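Name: 3-methyl-2-oxobutanoate hydroxymethyltransferase
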Amino acid sequence: MKQTTDFLKMKENEEKIVMLTAYDFPAAKQAEGANVDMILVGDSLGMVVLGYDSTVPVTMEDMIHHGKAVKRGAKNTFIVIDMPFMSYHLSAKDTLINGARLIQETGAHAVKLEGGDEVAQQIGALTKAGIPVVAHLGLTPQSVGVLGGYKVQGKNAEAARKLIDDARECERAGAFALVLECVPKQLAKQITEELTIPVIGIGAGKDTDGQVLVYHDVLGYGVERVPKFVKQYENLNPIIGDSLAAYSAEVKNGSFPDDCHSFKMKEEELLSLYGGKA
Ligand SMILES: Nc1nc(=O)c2c([nH]1)NC[C@@H]1CN(c3ccc(C(=O)N[C@@H](CCC(=O)O)C(=O)O)cc3)CN21
Ligand SMILES: CC(C)C(=O)C(=O)O
Ligand SMILES: [Mg+2]
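Structure predicted for 3-methyl-2-oxobutanoate hydroxymethyltransferase:
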């Protein structure tokens, strides 16, 4: 299994880092089977598997419940788990307690939290306590209310400069990697070149050190509309829809279950069951 330091070496060797989200046992098994370098138990689970319209309602309990299932499915893959909304803002003590719970109770290897300068203290405290941290900048979905929607970030010079400063600050605070979401590709390239730690992009172009996508987006599984930056490698929705409709139709018309999906008792057992008594 890869370690935090291996991701730094991958950056140095210009070997791309592949990250994919997973929220449950089967997805984690598939991700590990596909040899992804890192699995992210993202708080996007609130939207793609719990049906909320943002990541804000996701709780520590939700993250731990899903994190445990992912770990059972991917025992040999590096796992990063999102710290949910407001679990790293109240106090240094709360941040450490929540970070420790996520690591200890799920068996994940690192936590991820959103923000730059304003959470540098928390990144430092967690790292000093022995919890590896991935920073997350650009479009930070937990701040959707403040950002006013899921929009590309860092489009003007001033916003871009702030993002570059924040990225440096995250590295200085001790983050071992940075997720950069929904920013212009030129800005992502510059940040990737300026940082020593690996930058993993999502909607950030091809020049970052790695890429991350949401499992359900890649597969077209459950999700209806996906962000522009998503490449759908499959569209499972109609496959699942058609399969379930066929099952339903066959139950209704009596063609399921047939003999090959049923169990049979031997004739002599049937005879002794009914034979003398009927
Ligand atoms: N299924 C899913 N995939 C994700 O990548 C994802 C989630 N959910 N939930 C949490 C966040 C939210 N994300 C999103 C959601 C929507 C857009 C989006 O629609 N963006 C517009 C761009 C708008 C603009 O031009 O500024 C787009 O058209 O892609 C982007 C990121 C990324 N994350
Ligand atoms: C989109 C990725 C980076 C994420 O934070 C999540 O899936 O929650
Ligand atoms: Mg997230």
